[in-house]
Records
---
Amino acid sequence: MSIRVNPSRTLCVTAIAMLVLAVLHDPCFAQAGKGSRAATPAGPGMQKVVTQQASFVLYIPKGWKAQESADGQAFQVTASDPSGRSSVFLSTGAASQGENVTALAKREAAKLGRAARDLEIRSAFASRDGSSLTFDGTYSPPKRGKTEFRSWVSLQGGQSTCARIEAPAGQLNAVRPALLTVLSNIRVMKGAVAPRLRQPPSGCSWFPTA
């Protein structure tokens, strides 16, 4: 499996952030804490959820489910709609020593490939400073059928962050605003991330969003 970044299609972080700003008005993630608020207004029909181990706080539509898990030193959360076919995923934790953002993207893509052999990466875009990468494609996880996704990965100091939105093939564009709203409202509780990791500066995104 390979992920090739096309230089002619490379997008800088600022351009990506501006694009999402136009969609969500405020793409930044707010770190949980006393007096903190969600980055994007949750709106009617949204409910506040704290995950099992209290590592994350989310605002999700009524009927959705949120599930926290761990993968090594990474904390993960998945929020899924009632059908289980549209979802939002976020993982943050210690970066592997010497790993760059392309290797991180390949590792995340490999996880999808293990879930479905028909994984297809359609495009990949890297930030100019090499700290983040966006890629999208399709795969067919068990019992869910053909699924379209967009993923973001970033490295900041010793921290890696991965996020993904997905929906049935052909439907991602239609549900993208709702999925990005959920994603932008995920907050990491203080003390949830391994001590060696640095929290992102207040008011900044964990990763570029588009």
---
Amino acid sequence: MSLSLRILIAGWLLWCAPLRGAWEWSAGSTAFLAGAAARDDSSATISFWLWIDATQAANAPVVYMGTAASNGWGLYIPNGTRTVATLFGGVTFGSQSVALSQATWAHVAMVRSGTSYTLYVNGTASSGETRTINAPTGTWGVSRATAAPQMRVAEVAYYTSALSAAQVSMLARGVSPLSVGKPLWYHPLARELHEWMAGADFALTGSNLGPANNHPRVYRPSP
């Protein structure tokens, strides 16, 4: 099944009925969703919704472009916190972080423009930072097999453009990524699409990954 057809089907499901369950990593989870080969786009945006179930017992990458230990860029939850923070593999932990409420959906985005990176949480921009990264290798994906996060993730999108603050605000208000810019990759990570998405878009390894009982409500505005 082609990517365009999968996106069309996902968009039709979002249009016709609200999705009821996201994907959930539980205590002891070793699940990792590996996506397509990593890219080094000078302008790019990562967008997703995040629900943290508990204080993390280890540094836990959430959505990441590349190999977190040595290259690339993305977001992680630092050990002992319920915070989302920037990470630049093999270079440094980022300077931007925002504490999240437990058991509440939050929209998270990280916008890259050259060497500048800005973290957004619920549409509000952080201070931004400048980093020179090690070019991403490996894949992009959600979580890592050794991190054992306790979280739910949904509506993951990757853009090969630096979204504007207004576009990020739209995503944070619940507008579907399919209606904001043109995502290169889009994964609802919804319970209704659980097996279909695993087989078609992400390569799943590990265990203790299952559907949660809720999903952030996203919608597509009327034409």
